[in-house]
Amino acid sequence: MIELPYLNVETPFPPVSTALSDPNGLLAYGATLDAPRLFNAYSNGIFPWFSDDEPILWWSPDPRAIIELDDFHLSRSLKKLANRRQYTVTLNQSFDEVIEACASIPRMNPHSDAPTTETWIVDDMITAYKRLHQAGIAHSVEVWDAQNNLAGGLYGVAIGEIFCGESMFHLQPNTSKLAMYALVTHMKKHQLAFIDCQLPTEHLASLGAKTLPRSTFIERLRKHNDTLDEDGRITAEYRYRWQGGNITP
């Protein structure tokens, strides 16, 4: 039997060191998905992940998967694809369309041993991350084909200099990888830190992901978390780094 702390609207998160080892990283349940709670979660290395028939579950796994920007694996085929310029890549031009596309693609849930292909991006999550995007914290990368159709993309949450990736999708070959390459290029240009991938997978490893102990991840997260100024407002530097525009590598 699993015993978890219950969070009401005002309850703070427990220390991430108290998260379960089985299932890996399960920390607490309850609370809400409002923008302040989500911002607080990501600022402390915590993220929500749950299905339609579950309460809101909060996670902080150990180890944590990240992609160091200089370690991103640019394959020859992906480099050729980028050099052909058959796609245009943008930042924050169509967040709603990207998250809805990600939600429409069933995928395995790495937090569950049960075989399922149901999406974990439930309606409540979609609504919550759209609000977080409107607050200027969640961001999307879009890949457009020559007919201006959305061909692939990704979305996530930026905490200071770190991008916490949530999900990606492709409707045309390798377009999700192209979105990731463009994100890495953008982050390097603005001297950002690394991409948080949450949990390791073979696909992420093929892109250069490695794992860190959770304690090391939290230390680096705190070092690079400069999202808000002293008045609790998003800094001008943050807005500049994550503003929209063409980011084709």
Automatic annotation (TrEMBL):
This protein's UniProt keywords: Acyltransferase, Cytoplasm, Transferase
Enzyme class: transferase
Predominant subcellular localization, coarse grouping: cytoplasm
Entry's Gene Ontology cellular component terms: cytoplasm
Reactions mediated catalytically: N-terminal L-arginyl-[protein] + L-leucyl-tRNA(Leu) = N-terminal L-leucyl-L-arginyl-[protein] + tRNA(Leu) + H(+); L-phenylalanyl-tRNA(Phe) + an N-terminal L-alpha-aminoacyl-[protein] = an N-terminal L-phenylalanyl-L-alpha-aminoacyl-[protein] + tRNA(Phe); N-terminal L-lysyl-[protein] + L-leucyl-tRNA(Leu) = N-terminal L-leucyl-L-lysyl-[protein] + tRNA(Leu) + H(+)
Subcellular location: Cytoplasm
Pfam families: Leu_Phe_trans (PF03588)
EC assignment: 2.3.2.6
Summary of the function given for this chain in its UniProt record: Functions in the N-end rule pathway of protein degradation where it conjugates Leu, Phe and, less efficiently, Met from aminoacyl-tRNAs to the N-termini of proteins containing an N-terminal arginine or lysine.
Protein's UniProt name: Leucyl/phenylalanyl-tRNA--protein transferase
Organism: Alteromonas confluentis
Originating gene: aat
